[in-house]
């Protein structure tokens, strides 16, 4: 495990797992949303492909995403391992709700110095609504990719419950 993608739906715990695995294996961790959102008002990095290409060219890395569409194939083509947090809505939704509530209350800065706001909850792009509406589609896309012959060399570990993930992590 040298070049690792941690994939799953919004709120599954990708960043948390990626950080923990990165620390245990001494693999540099890169937060995809921090590469994607680079400024206030959720400004998108117009050099995303360049930034991700630079990371992907490194011999060792761990990224907490399947990748935004413009860099997805690049990452999947370079990775050697996929850790798939394939959790149901019963697991994911309470997590994303707690995280968004905390961020809205504390005004905790996230990617590019942005903050989740109460008004943001009305947007279809808000993490809670996104997690709900994209859950099935994201799971389908990950299943399709892990079964794609182009990515057959990838070692894929699929976890269907947080207890499985925790046991695996403890075994590292």
From TrEMBL:
PANTHER family: TOXIN, YALI0E33011P. This is AAA family ATPase. The lineage of its organism: Bacteria, Bacillati, Actinomycetota, Actinomycetes, Kitasatosporales.
